[in-house]
Automatic annotation (TrEMBL):
Record-level Gene Ontology MF annotations: acyltransferase activity, transferring groups other than amino-acyl groups
Name of the protein described by the UniProt record: Acetyltransferase protein
Organism of provenance: Phialemonium atrogriseum
InterPro entries for this protein: Acyl_CoA_acyltransferase, GNAT_dom, N-acetyltransferase
Assigned keywords, A-Z: Acyltransferase, Transferase
Family: Belongs to the acetyltransferase family. RimJ subfamily.
Length: 226
């Protein structure tokens, strides 16, 4: 499951690897990346020691299928190390509790933000991915909600008004995740993308406004920032 980007600093890989920052980012002060303790996962900045775990989680055709071409497939340890060397501060690893019940956390995927340019600089694109063994458990929905709440908060991204996600037409599971996280379907860019297998597909656009996110927050779901 993935948004077509996890926006990547390598040139967009994780919606689709994880967003790169562009010149519009210079308008805003540098932020310390958060550590978010959510109901089903923990989001924290990547560390150099995460490379092997990233490669393990990302190296599966079901992960790459609906990612942009900048997301490698196969995904090697070298790919992970290269990506970590340039990762944006607004790219976070998604960790989940280990299935054996121990306190150890397992890297399950990633989520990130990339600011749009020029007159759209009040919008950031969100992208995410999860390894196949961690899908279908509500982790991606939890990560999207929590990261969005932080991004729109006073300690989050200055000037942010809107989050946007783009999903390839056949990726119904990711579209459902966005809907559960409160994102609104805004339309399709018809025949806008060519998949790795050569198929031409629509790109579906989902958006979440600051006031919509705040309304969701009033319904519950707290975020604990470490």
């Amino acid at each position: 499951m993935a948004s077509i980007t996890e926006p990547s600093t390598r040139v967009q890989a994780q919606a689709q690897e994880q967003p790169d920052l562009n010149p519009a980012e210079a308008q805003f002060p540098t932020m310390a990346p958060p550590i978010l303790h959510l109901a089903k996962c923990v989001l924290r900045p990547y560390q150099p020691t995460d490379a092997a775990a990233i490669a393990l989680a990302a190296n599966h055709p079901d992960v790459a299928r609906y990612m942009r071409n900048a997301f490698p497939s196969p995904y090697t340890l070298h790919d992970a190390e290269t990506w970590l060397a340039t990762a944006s501060p607004l790219s976070l690893a998604i960790f989940v509790p280990s299935p054996d019940g121990t306190p150890t956390l397992t890297l399950a995927g990633g989520i990130g933000l990339r600011r749009l340019a020029d007159v759209e600089s009040n919008t950031m694109e969100v992208g995410y991915w999860l390894g196949p063994t961690h899908q279908g458990r509500g982790v991606a929905t939890d990560a999207l909600r929590g990261f969005g709440r932080w991004a729109f908060s006073a300690s989050g991204v200055p000037g942010l008004v809107r989050l946007e996600a783009a999903v390839f037409g056949p990726n119904a599971r990711s579209a459902a995740v966005l809907a559960r996280a409160g994102y609104v379907y805004e339309g399709a860019r018809r025949s806008a993308a060519v998949l790795r297998d050569g198929g031409v597909v629509d790109v579906m656009v989902y958006g979440l406004l600051r006031e919509e996110c705040l309304a969701l927050e009033r319904g519950g779901d707290g975020v604990v920032v470490a």
